[in-house]
Amino acid sequence: MTFTPALCVPALEAKTAEQAIRALAKRLFDGGHVKASFEHAAVLREKRSPTGLPFPDAPVALPHAEPEHVLSPACAVALLAAPVKFRQMGSPQMQLDVRIVVMPALTAKDQAAAGLAALIERLQDVARRTALLAATTPNAIAHAIGG
Questions:
Q1: φ/ψ of residue 54, rounded to 5
Q2: Phi, psi angle pair for 85, to nearest 5°
Q3: Tens of pLDDT along 60-104?
Q4: Is 131 exposed, middle or buried (0-12, 13-18, 19+ CB in 10 A)?
Q5: Where is 83: in which H helix or E strand?
Q6: Which CATH number do you get for residue 40?
Q7: The domain containing residue 51 runs over which residues?
Q8: How crowded is residue 147: how many other Cβ atoms within 10 Å of its Cβ?
Q9: Are 21 and 60 in contact (CB under 8 A)?
Q10: How far apart are CA 13 and CA 18, in angstroms?
């Protein structure tokens, strides 16, 4: 999975999880990676299956949509200007204050499962999350998550 600065957003202003999801989906759409339907599908999927991961130092959200809404693989990343509430994966009654939002756009179902697992594994690295939180430019974000 490659991370390009054009899909990385430092200090994204969002007041809700839905606003963050819509902003990253628009970035993927503007880059030609997803269909117009991706944004709505990602919002619905997050409501149905929350994606917040409760890492102790910095919870992360991985909102995404089904592969039929994807044109080419890509991944958008945002550091939120202020934390927003995302529900926790596997424990939807729990709310997490998320500052890192990573939105993969993956094409085939099998690739999506493997791609998500690889992304979660990458994000389990404390040093990587620390570098992400310290990043202030699109280039620094892409380097921190992809490096």
A1: -85, 55
A2: -80, 125
A3: 999 999 999 999 999 999 999 999 999 999 998 999 999 999 999
A4: middle
A5: strand 74-88
A6: 3.40.930.10
A7: 5-146
A8: 9
A9: no
A10: 12
User: Please, where are the H alpha helices in 66-108?
Assistant: none
As a whole number of Å, the end-to-end CA separation of the chain is 11
Q: Is the dihedral of CA 32, 14, 112, 6 positive or negative?
A: positive
Q: How many Cα atoms are found within 13 Å in the side-chain-facing hemisphere of 97? A: 5
The CA distance from 134 to 144, in Å, is: 9
Number of domains into which the chain is organized:
1
Would you state the torsion angle of the CA atoms of residues 129, 12, 49, 53, taken in this order, to the nearest 10 degrees? 20
| Residue 138 confidence (pLDDT) above 60 | yes
Phi and psi of 29, rounded to 5°? -65, -45
108: its two tokens: 């085939």
| Amino acid (one-letter) located at 119 | L
Q: Whole-model pTM?
A: 0.94
Q: Where do the H-state alpha helices sit in 1-147?
A: 17-30, 37-48, 109-123, 126-134, 138-146
Report the run of H or E that residue 10 belongs to, with start and end.
strand 8-12
